[in-house]
Amino acid sequence: MKANKQVAHKRGIYLLPNLLTTAGLFAGFYAVVASMQGAFASAAVAIFIAMIMDGLDGRIARMTNTQSDFGAEYDSMADMISFGIAPALVIYNWALYDTGKIGWLAAFVYVVGAALRLARFNTQVATADKRYFQGLASPSAAAIIAGLVWLGSDYEWDSKPWGIYIAIMTMVVGLLMVSNFRYSSFKEVDWKGKIPFIGVLLIVLIFVLVASEPPLVLFSGFAIYALSGPVMTLWRIKDIKEERRLRKLEEADQSEINEESEENGKK
User: Fold this and answer.
1) Number of folded domains that form the chain
2) Is residue 178 part of a domain?
3) pLDDT in tens, 29-54
4) What CATH number is given to the structural domain containing 235?
5) What is the pLDDT of residues 102-151, one digit of tens each?
């Protein structure tokens, strides 16, 4: 009986983090449905809600010690829907539908970029530098797309004359996800540490700006973040090359040590 209970416990899934992941997945699916009905502002807001859920599920899992392989895989599948397929279909329904072949090709490039970005992240998560993301993270890319749609819907823009330019922007955002540009992950920030009083005022100011013009501030903020990758990478190109050279030397030394240990073991 005890053995059966242990097996059942192992086969179960943790409720809270996976519930948040499901909420994010629902928000992404709702964004697609809302865009098909012409409710583009609601679709964009749903993608931002999915971003919040995606940020919470991993942190809640670590705080409650409920991480699991199932949760990690489920989170990746949900991210593909919420930050890959949903933004592509929302931007297509809003601005790319009338552009013909280039419209759906631009949306497809974005979807492929999101898929490749998530696959690369999952395979490199154990060895990657925690301080940086390699390529634009898919939630940030989705925020640019959703922010533009929300901004255009809020200001009642006619997107048809700008369809080709929006298609190009969509493809560029998709390519940024699979680029080698470095983006700060902000994981080196000590969220539990103390900050100067002026820091609190800056945080309050950010909240005020977001509350005053959410679509404009969010789109501008994530667009600036997208541009920071190429700028930061080119600014630190020498340091990056030196880091790669040192890493290769360390790997070569480690391989030599492994070969010597194998030879000694055979002897």
Assistant:
1) 1
2) yes
3) 999 999 999 999 999 999 999 999 99
4) 1.20.120.1760
5) 999 999 999 999 999 999 988 887 666 777 888 999 999 999 999 999 99
- Once rounded to an integer, what is the mean pLDDT over residues 180-208? 79
183 forms bridges with which residues in the sheet? 133
Q: List C-alpha distances in Å: 183 to 1, 57, 162, 222, 225.
A: 51, 22, 29, 12, 8
Q: Where are the alpha helices (DSSP H) in the chain?
A: 2-11, 15-36, 40-63, 69-80, 86-91, 101-124, 138-154, 163-177, 197-212, 214-235, 237-266
Report pTM: 0.83
Alpha carbon distance 202, 196 (integer Å): 10
Integer-rounded Cα Rg, in Å, for the chain is 22
Cβ–Cβ < 8 Å for 90, 149: yes
Greatest alpha-carbon pair distance for the chain in Å reads 77
Name 134's bridge partners: 182
3-class SS of residue 185: coil
Residue 264 has pLDDT above 80, yes or no: no
Which pLDDT value is given to residue 29? Answer: 97
CA separation for the pair 101, 136 (Å, rounded):
26
Whether 262 is in a domain gets the answer: no
Residue 244 belongs to some domain of the structure: yes
